[in-house]
Write a structure and sequence with these properties.
With 361 residues, the chain is α/β, with parallel strands linked by helices. The protein has helices at 38-45, 64-70, 87-102, 120-136, 184-193, 207-217, 219-230, 237-244, 253-256, 282-285, 345-354, and strands at residues 4-10, 55-60, 79-82, 107-112, 116-118, 142-146, 157-167, 170-179, 196-205, 265-269, 272-274, 294-297, 299-302, 308-311, 317-320, 325-330, 333-338. Helix 6 (207-217) crosses helix 7 (219-230).
């Protein structure tokens, strides 16, 4: 069986976690919902199945030193710094090419670096099942479908088709369709109907299969990546990456490739999963008090209900007589917003940038 590699996609900016998440220290480098940073937990989750020498981390060029310090056992050359943010298609295409250079027969698992998955041993069992499925279907791509627990409207969904067999004790299905982020009624209907899953952005492939998919569906991006991949390991690598990567088309791998494939496999992932997408994730990761308040750090809530309060970067936050707020304190910036508008934090970051307040971004 082929070697199993992992690509940790760690280039996100994490703006929905402002003010804790900043450009120089985005959410994947933060210990949200625990004591270990999300990226380090993602790497460690792979255990001995995918040791650090078979991990690639694709991140922003300005984060390379921080990532290498956080993951010292990952070979330094395998922490790749994107000189410009080009979305996930360029990231995946580059990683597929690099792993293809390291081991053409590898099976690659691509995963965001800022998710939480448990139990970790069960997750590794699913990685082995994916590897087995792709050994039988090497030209296909496999997506992991998280079993839904609620009618979530913030995620894309997957609709599975017929079974294609059992691999490593896990049943694998044909993917019938990607479903755009639904409205509540459709999400409720899919949850009730069964046979659907959340699209977690976790997928597996052989390098040759992904490269072929890029050549067919994103030919211009594919051609743009070729000289970058060919320079891997050579003296020209840094200069080629810096010159070529910013010219690549900016598109997500889902839109650019995955949704255009006709023979994708889906492996259900019936595990505890969280994408840690906004401050409301803390209510799923931390225990609430009897009034529904979730606090971290030196935070105090009196006569209030359903608040999320974070004071982990120093100082004390105390609130009284208010309900349904998110309050986050850092040494140089404080956020206060309604709990039901957690996604709106991204708009705050945009406004701060517009006003030239980059010192707090």
């Amino acid at each position: 069986m082929s070697s199993l590699f992992a690509v940790l996609m760690a280039g996100g900016s994490g703006t929905r976690f402002w003010p804790a998440s900043r450009g120089a220290r985005p959410k994947q480098l933060l210990p949200l919902g625990g004591e270990v940073p999300l990226l380090a937990r993602t790497s460690a989750r792979l255990g001995d199945l995918v040791p650090p020498e078979r991990q690639l981390v694709v991140t922003g060029a300005h984060l390379v030193d921080a990532v290498r310090a956080m993951l010292p056992d990952v070979p330094a050359a395998q922490v790749i710094g994107e000189p410009a943010a080009r979305d996930t298609a360029a990231c995946v295409g580059l990683a597929a090419g690099v792993v293809g250079r390291l081991d053409p027969d590898a099976t690659v698992v691509a995963m965001p670096a800022d998710q939480l998955i448990a139990p970790e041993a069960a997750f590794r069992e699913h990685l082995l099942a994916a590897e087995s499925a792709l050994a039988a279907h090497p030209t296909r791509v496999l997506v992991f479908g998280v079993e839904p627990t609620r009618p979530e409207t913030g995620y894309g969904w997957l609709r599975r088709g017929a079974s294609v067999g059992t691999f490593g004790g896990k049943e694998v299905f044909a993917l019938d369709a990607f479903v755009e982020k639904p409205d509540l009624a459709r999400a409720e209907a899919m949850l009730e109907a069964g046979g659907h899953a959340w699209n977690a952005g976790l997928f597996a492939f052989r390098p040759s299969a992904m490269t072929a998919a890029f050549a067919e569906h994103l030919p211009q991006l594919h051609e743009g990546l070729l000289p970058v991949v060919e320079a891997w390991g050579d003296a020209a690598w840094t200069d080629t990456l810096a010159a070529r990567f910013p010219t690549l088309h900016k598109v997500s791998v889902d839109k650019g490739v995955m949704e255009k494939l006709s023979d994708t496999l889906v492996l259900p992932l019936p595990l505890d999963w969280d994408d840690v997408g906004s401050w409301t994730a803390l209510e799923r990761l931390l225990d609430a008090d009897a009034a529904g308040n979730v606090t971290s750090g030196d935070a105090v809530v009196l006569d209030g209900r359903d608040n999320i309060v974070s004071a982990t970067d120093g100082g004390v936050v105390a609130i009284k007589g208010v309900d349904g707020l998110i309050v986050v304190h850092t040494p140089d910036a404080t956020l206060v917003c309604r709990r039901d508008d957690a996604q709106g934090v991204k708009a705050i970051v945009a406004e701060l940038e517009k006003r030239g307040l980059r010192r707090v971004l």
